[in-house]
Amino acid sequence: MGNALKSLYGQCCPEPPTATTTGGGTGTDQPLGHSALAQHLYHFEITSQVPEDLTWRESKPPPKTPEEASMLVVHTLHRRQTADLEGLLSFYGLPFLDSLVEVTAGETPPLSDGFKFELHTLPVDPRAVADGDGVTVYVRTTDAWGSTRVPPEIQMAADERKKARAQRNYAKADALYTLIKDAGYGVLHIKNEEILARKYRIRLRGIDAPENAMPYGKEAKDELVKIIDGKCLKNLIFDEEYGRFVGDMYCDGIFVQETMLKKGLAWHYTAYDKRPELEKWEKSARAKRIGLWASSNPEMPWEWRKNRRIYENSDRWLKLCLFTLFGAILSFYISLIK
C-alpha cells in the first residue's frame, strides 16, 4: 500500500496483519475495521514506530466510528499520495471521505433529447438553497430566454420604483416592490447596479438527494451551498414540474450533479434518468463507501417521502375519527341532559 503503509508499520511489521477466521480451517482475509487499526497503532505507538501525529490515544475525542477513523488517517497522512490513502482505507475496510473525491471540469454527459432552453443566473444566495437537489435562482429579465416574457406592467413598476427611490418616496417604492415580488420577480442590487430579475426554482435533473430531515440531508444541502454560493450558474432546462424547472446545472465548468453523486450525497434517480454517466458516478461512491454509502442500507429519499405521506394521511384519518367520536359522545351527553 505504498509509502502510507511504510509510515504506519515501519520496520516492526514486514507483512500487513490480517484478520482470520478460527475453528479449524484455513484463515480467510477479511476487512479489519477501525478497531483493528486502533490496536495496530496502539502497539506501534508504544514501540515508537508509528508516525508522531497518528497518536490514537491522544486524539480528542478518540475515533469510535469508521468515519472518524478515516478522518484521522486522512488528516495525518494528507501529504501522501491519494493512492496511498485509498490503499490504507481499503485495507482496513474504512469508508472513503469526500475530500478524496476528484471532480474535474469537462466530464459531462452529452446533451440529450428534450433540451428546451438555457438559463444563466445571477450570483446565488446561499439562503436560496432548499436542499441537496433544489435551489431558487434569479435570472436577468434581459436574458435571451426571458427578455420577451416580462409583463409590461412589471417593467413599468420597476421603472416607477426606481424614480420613487430617487425622490425618497420610500412608501411608494415599497408598494411597487411588493407588486413586483408577488408577480415572481425581484430587484437585486449587484455591484451598484439595480437589476430586475425573474425568480425560478431549479430541480437538479437525474439525482435525488436525501431530504433535510433524513440522514445526510444536511450534508447534502451544505455541499450544494458550498458549490454554488455566490456563483453564477448555467442551467440547461429539460422539463418543468410542480412549478420548478428541471435541468442540468454547471458552476465554473463543473457539472454539479457529478459532484453530488461522486461525494455520495445523492442517488441517481433512475426512475426519471437513464444516463450511464450518472450511474457510473453513483457506483463509484458506493464502492468507496463515501457519504451516505457509509451506511449499509441507506433509505432511499423517494421511499422516505412515500412513507411520510402514508404516515401523514394515517395521522389525519385518526384525528378525523377521534373528532367524529368526540362529537358523537358530546351529542349523546347533551341529549341526556335535555
Automatic annotation (TrEMBL):
The keyword Plastid does not apply. GO terms for molecular function: endonuclease activity; hydrolase activity. Keywords: Endonuclease, Hydrolase, Membrane, Nuclease, Transmembrane, Transmembrane helix. The chain crosses the membrane at residues 317-336. One of its GO terms (cellular component) is cytoplasm. Residues 129-295 form the TNase-like domain. Residues 9-32 are annotated as: Disordered. InterPro entries: SNase_OB-fold_sf, Staphylococal_nuclease_OB-fold. This is TNase-like domain-containing protein. It comes from Lactuca virosa. The lineage of its organism: Eukaryota, Viridiplantae, Streptophyta, Embryophyta, Tracheophyta.
